[in-house]
């Protein structure tokens, strides 16, 4: 995409207004119907702007570039000072890696073409592409209607995820805990807090001044460490009352980093007295006597902090950089355009959409520039990522920008609306091949499924080491510590939620900010919410998994009942051949599987999969099921609606209960085999998953197409 660039650097010797004896200059760049303005300076004859304007070549309808210098007047019309004109045919073309074009001084002409005593302006004018380094910070003619602070919200940017750590606090014991009421021994617990995260140990079962817990509290922390670890020892004074008896605050950067499963050293920390016991007279004794707490605290460097669902994970590297392996490939992505977008809001009485695209892979987020008032925006922006694991997913989201200022009106109050999402698993791409495809942008709303348009992408995955990729398929997806010392399911859910919040807050501070609603949509923040539609979709996925075996059993039943005599006779002949020549059994089975593979190879997918509405059960979902899916948590519905949904859930649970009962009835064999497997010798067991398990877990599943 070619753009006309005009760099306005500065001006000098501008003539002052003869009436006010001063000048408030600004520059206006005009190309056809498009006008761009710099900010104005008050009472300055030698101003410096250092601003770049970019005009899309395909929309230019003029052969002249005009640069005006005007004097800002708050009351009357702005006064004309001078101008410079350029013929479009004489503008030089510059393509990186050429050095930037040097700006030059030009004399300003008055309306009659005279240059006497009008001053000079330093400019550079050239024709370039969106690859020009001036492009990201330039004013764009595509967004000419954006005013004020909204200009900063339309630019393309690259963001980096904050470096996340798991902070493990092993609370071992405490000594000499004194309650405010010294008439009875304390029964205490420890509460830990890092930022907004609050966790508690269990209540010590006995009343004692020397309690023991030996419990782990795990938090998520992000560099740079802005919060402290605050631990409070609290006494259960009465059933409804907890009193703080001691407290300590610790800096996170003082803790040891753990790179493997070996425990770190524990330390005793003196606690600060808290409450009514802290009197001026007691402070003399603080150095002689203090409550203590025994802790083992470390920053876990060998885990990968999960901020996204493991089904759509884009990065599997541990936190500690020294544990990273070499990249196995390069992912190049061209975010080209979108077509047929729906109107997202009303602007001056007509529908409009101000679309931008966000892509997330690994630690890097990218955001394209916003194309205003267009249902067919063209971005043509290219980005590159290093790939460390092929079994990962890149996610694209398209949003409507609601932070441009002006007169836009929409249903959401300053929230960037979702237009749609696309996921692409790298292992479904052929290496070194360029895919240029359009993907449907589908959004599920309480009113039903809606197609919002299409997103056109160009993708290429370049392999650097095929041997390394084959090696990875035999190893677990996540770092080893996730299997040697795994977290519980509830812990993982809670830690993922906290990690998503931290990422959303940190990226929301950038300029322009990547807003919370955008980050949450890209990271699937609501994927754990109950949905009858998703439950049905997953049930039918299980059914389709066993459909081959079911079809085979039906076919054998037909053979047995002689529904097709020719087929039954051929099966008898094959059976007698295998009985007479048993050495042909395995070759026959493998030949049959090979022929099936060759037959199905013709129908392999030629393009990366996209969101599948039938697989997601989105088209057949009942309106009440969608209404339940989009309900708040806790619910905000009427009592009779809640009762109806509860009864429906009971009926589903009843069916599951029946199936579980049938499995339990026929489960003696399964139980015996499972028991023998569980009691096997330690030589035959490992905490890490087996190679076949790793291989099959890494194969692409149809979950990538689930809405």
From TrEMBL:
InterPro entries (alphabetical): C2_dom (IPR000008), C2_domain_sf (IPR035892), C2B_MCTP_PRT_plant (IPR047257), C2C_MCTP_PRT_plant (IPR047258), C2D_MCTP_PRT_plant (IPR047255), MCTP_C (IPR013583), QUIRKY-like (IPR047259)
Domain named C2: residues: 1-106, 146-269, 312-439
Entry keywords, A to Z: Calcium, Membrane, Repeat, Transmembrane, Transmembrane helix
Compartments, record wording: Membrane
GO BP annotation list: positive regulation of long-day photoperiodism, flowering
Keyword Transcription regulation included in the entry's annotation: no
Pfam family, one: PRT_C
The UniProt record lists the keyword Repeat: yes
Stored PROSITE patterns: C2
Cellular component terms per the entry's GO annotation: endoplasmic reticulum membrane
Record's bilayer topology term: Multi-pass membrane protein
PANTHER family on file: FT-INTERACTING PROTEIN 1, PHOSPHORIBOSYLANTHRANILATE TRANSFERASE ISOFORM 1
Family of the protein in this entry: Belongs to the MCTP family.
Protein name: Multiple C2 and transmembrane domain-containing protein 1
Species this chain originates from: Cajanus cajan
Lineage, highest ranks first: Eukaryota, Viridiplantae, Streptophyta, Embryophyta, Tracheophyta
């Amino acid at each position: 995409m070619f753009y006309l660039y005009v760099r306005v650097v500065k001006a000098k010797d501008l003539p002052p207004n003869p009436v006010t004896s001063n000048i408030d200059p600004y520059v206006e760049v005009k190309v056809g119907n498009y006008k761009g303005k710099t900010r104005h300076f008050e009472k300055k004859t030698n101003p410096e702007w250092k601003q770049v304007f970019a005009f899309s070549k395909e929309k230019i309808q003029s052969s002249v570039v005009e640069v005006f210098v005007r004097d800002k007047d708050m009351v009357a019309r702005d006064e004309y000072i001078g101008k410079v004109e350029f013929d479009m045919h004489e503008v030089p073309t510059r393509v990186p890696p050429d050095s930037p074009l040097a700006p030059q001084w030009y004399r300003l002409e008055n309306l009659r073409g005279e240059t006497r005593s009008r001053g000079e302006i330093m400019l550079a004018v050239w024709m370039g592409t969106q690859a020009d380094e001036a492009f990201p910070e330039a004013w764009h003619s595509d967004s000419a209607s954006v005013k004020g602070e909204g200009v900063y919200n339309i630019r393309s940017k690259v963001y980096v995820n904050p470096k996340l750590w798991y902070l493990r606090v092993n609370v071992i014991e405490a000594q000499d805990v004194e309650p405010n009421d010294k008439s009875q021994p304390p029964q205490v617990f420890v509460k830990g807090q890092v930022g907004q995260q609050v966790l508690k140990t269990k209540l010590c079962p006995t009343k004692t001044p020397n309690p023991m817990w030996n419990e782990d509290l795990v938090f998520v922390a992000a560099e740079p460490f802005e919060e402290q670890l605050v631990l409070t020892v609290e006494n259960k004074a009465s059933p409804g009352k907890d009193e703080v008896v001691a407290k300590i605050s610790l800096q996170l950067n003082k803790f040891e980093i753990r790179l493997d499963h070996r425990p770190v050293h524990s330390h005793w920390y003196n606690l600060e007295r808290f409450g009514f016991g802290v009197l001026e007279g007691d402070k003399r004794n603080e150095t002689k006597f203090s409550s203590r707490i025994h802790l083992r605290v470390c920053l876990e460097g060998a885990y990968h902090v999960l901020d996204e669902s493991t089904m759509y994970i884009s990065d599997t590297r541990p936190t500690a950089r020294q544990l990273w392996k070499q990249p196995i490939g390069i992912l190049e992505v061209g975010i080209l355009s979108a077509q047929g977008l729906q109107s997202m809001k009303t602007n001056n009485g007509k529908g409009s959409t101000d679309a931008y695209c966000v892509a997330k892979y690994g630690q890097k987020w990218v955001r394209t520039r916003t194309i205003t008032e267009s249902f067919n925006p063209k971005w043509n922006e290219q980005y590159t990522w290093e790939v460390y694991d092929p079994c990962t997913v890149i996610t694209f989201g398209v949003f409507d920008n609601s932070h441009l200022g002006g007169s836009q009106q929409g249903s959401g109050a300053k929230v960037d609306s979702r237009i749609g999402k696309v996921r692409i698993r790298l292992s479904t791409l052929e290496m070194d091949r360029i895919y240029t495809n359009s993907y449907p942008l589908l959004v599920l709303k309480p009113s039903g499924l809606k197609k919002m348009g299409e997103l056109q992408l160009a993708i290429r995955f370049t392999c650097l080491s095929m041997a390394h990729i084959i090696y990875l398929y035999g190893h677990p997806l996540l770092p080893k510590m996730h299997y040697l010392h795994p977290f519980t399911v509830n812990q993982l859910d809670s830690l993922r939620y906290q990690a998503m919040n931290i990422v959303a807050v940190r990226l929301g501070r950038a300029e322009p900010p990547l807003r919370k609603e955008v980050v949450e949509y890209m990271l699937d923040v609501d994927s754990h919410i109950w949905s009858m539609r998703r439950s049905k979709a997953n049930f039918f996925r299980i059914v389709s998994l066993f459909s081959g075996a079911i079809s085979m059993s039906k076919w054998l039943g037909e053979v047995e009942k002689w529904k097709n005599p020719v087929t039954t006779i051929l099966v008898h002949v094959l059976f007698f051949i295998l009985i007479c020549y048993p050495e042909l059994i395995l070759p026959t089975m493998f030949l049959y599987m090979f022929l099936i593979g060759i037959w199905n190879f013709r129908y392999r997918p030629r393009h990366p999969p996209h969101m599948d509405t039938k697989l997601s059960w989105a088209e057949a979902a009942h309106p009440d099921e969608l209404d339940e899916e989009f309900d708040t948590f806790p619910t905000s519905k009427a009592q009779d609606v809640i009762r109806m949904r509860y009864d429906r859930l009971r009926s589903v649970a009843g069916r599951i209960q029946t199936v579980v009962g049938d499995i339990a009835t026929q489960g003696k064999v399964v139980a015996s085999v499972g028991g023998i497997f569980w009691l096997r010798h330690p030589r035959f067991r490992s905490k890490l998953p087996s190679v076949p398990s790793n291989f099959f877990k890494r194969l692409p599943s149809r979950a990538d197409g689930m809405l």
